[in-house]
């Protein structure tokens, strides 16, 4: 019986090191999923920035249009 314990203690530490050094399949999947989510977040942030710039441009155009004086056809003919 003691020989089986000694054999277990002999084999166990290298096996534990081997298990710890090899990446877990679930961890690898989680890392890839997290990378994908981060990439999608960056793309969404970029798109939001683009939309915000367009919104600012439209606001500026609307503000400019509010101050434009409209000339009637009678004034143009004179």
From TrEMBL:
TM stretches of this protein: none
Pfam families, per the entry: CpG_bind_C (PF12269)
GO molecular function: DNA binding; zinc ion binding
Localisation: Nucleus
Main location: nucleus
Domain CpG binding protein C-terminal: 6-76
Entries under InterPro entries matching the protein: CpG-bd_C (IPR022056), Spp1/CFP1 (IPR037869)
An example Gene Ontology CC term for this record: Set1C/COMPASS complex
Keywords assigned by UniProt, alphabetized: DNA-binding, Metal-binding, Nucleus, Transcription, Transcription regulation, Zinc, Zinc-finger
Superkingdom of the organism of origin: Eukaryota
A Gene Ontology biological process term: positive regulation of DNA-templated transcription
Protein name, as recorded: CXXC-type zinc finger protein 1
């Amino acid at each position: 019986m003691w020989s089986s314990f000694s054999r277990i203690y002999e084999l166990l530490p290298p096996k534990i090191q081997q298990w710890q050094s090899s990446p877990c399949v679930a961890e690898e999947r989680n890392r890839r999923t997290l990378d994908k989510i981060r990439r999608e977040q960056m793309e969404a942030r970029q798109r939001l920035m683009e939309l915000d710039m367009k919104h600012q441009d439209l606001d500026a155009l609307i503000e400019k249009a509010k101050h434009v004086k409209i000339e009637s056809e009678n004034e143009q003919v004179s």
